Amino acid sequence: MDFKNQYKEKLTTAQDAVKCVKSGDWIDYGWCTGTADLLDRALAQRYKELTDVKVRGGILFKKPAIMQVPDTSEHFIWNSWHMSGVERKMMKEGATFYAPIRYSELPRYYRENTGSVQVAMFQVAPMDAHGYFNFGPSASHMMAMCEQAKIIIVEVNENLPRCLGGKEEAIHISQVDMIVEGENSPVSELGGGGPATEVDQTVAKLIVEEIPDGACLQLGIGGMPNAVGSLIADSDLKNLGVHTEMYVDAFVDIAAAGKINGSCKSIDRFRQVYAFAAGTKKLYDYIDNNPQCMSAPVDYTNDVRTISQIDRFMSINNAVDVDLFGQINAESAGIKHISGAGGQLDFVLGAYLSQGGKSFICCSAAFKGKDGQLQSRIRPTLAPGSIVTDTRANTHFLVTEFGKVNLKGASTWQRAEKIISVAHPDFREDLISEAEKMGIWRKSNKK
């Protein structure tokens, strides 16, 4: 096949490509690093002609041009599968909404909803000799989404890493309707959230001492998981594996320290498996054409059945707050939206089912509010409107700077005692008093 001729035939401008968008359409912008850029600006220029265009995407690095037009909500609505800081700010302005779903369900959701995508437009790496455009660091749910799209427009970015995989990491030119050559902007970077704090380091030490040689790691985003990664890189641990939803800079550091080889994994041996990657240029350079790294769809990486097959699986994630029943909120502060369900529950369940596996939910015991007053992250009950990301029946280890406790199998009074034991000392008496009122405290409990 002469793919170069096909390429020329389908090559067009961003302005001409977006003419296919009609009022009322559902549009997909891709995901994270693959979010449309030049096409987004071209579509924004048409805003006066369009109403009620519903756009899906997630983990934005910058505010899309379509969300900056006058009277935005009359023309475009942004629907996020997972919120970034940019999207949280967009929510305050209106016309931006979160779509609650377990991240692992996205491919199935698309495949079972025929006709749910009128136009898909997203960034890809340059076409290879076999006619394939690589999705870059975001295999995620992209192929399933493309299977439902009536029109597919790819925006080529020469700087997007070519991420090798096992399946569904690229789309063939025969499936593409239009090709737009982008401006080859640098791939958007996601920082690690600043240097680890003393609290982060303390929590990290408590977790790392639980990790054995040959373990397989999943790290969430944020200061504490990054601190765990740094400690692992400096530790004596060896023969580690990686199987994660999001590939972050910490994995690059651990690999550079010679700790990762994947030799003990029961599946995908010697491969670092991930659904999407976001971080600094260091990360993008590392995963580019790296056969050790395996880009895979999220219904594989996050499937509890996949995770549970890997022995000594260690899942490490953050929480916003936790209540005395062991319910974990990782998504909101009351009704104020912060993140999304993502894959946290999948990894909490999968890690526990793994032979020798452990799931860790970590957070600081307290934080300072806007008024400067110290507030406990451990609450009697979650605040009204808070989202239960991990139910009480599924929580395994809870870790704060004051210790770690295993909640699995503990009755309500045991849970309350354990959870209070890792709360900030300034709040423990009040928490005991509330536990007594709720009938989950026994006279034999420690005070």
UniProtKB/TrEMBL annotation:
The lineage of its organism: Bacteria, Bacillati, Bacillota, Clostridia, Peptostreptococcales. CoA binds at residues 220-224, 320, 343. Residues 279-435 form the Acetyl-CoA hydrolase/transferase C-terminal domain. Gene3D superfamilies: 4-hydroxybutyrate coenzyme like domains, Acetyl-CoA hydrolase/transferase C-terminal domain, Glutaconate Coenzyme A-transferase. Pathway: Lipid metabolism; butanoate metabolism. It comes from Hominibacterium faecale. NCBIfam families: butyr_acet_CoA. This is Butyryl-CoA:acetate CoA-transferase. Belongs to the acetyl-CoA hydrolase/transferase family. Butyryl-CoA CoA-transferase subfamily. One of its GO terms (molecular function) is acetate CoA-transferase activity. Coenzyme A-transferase that converts butyryl-CoA to butyrate.
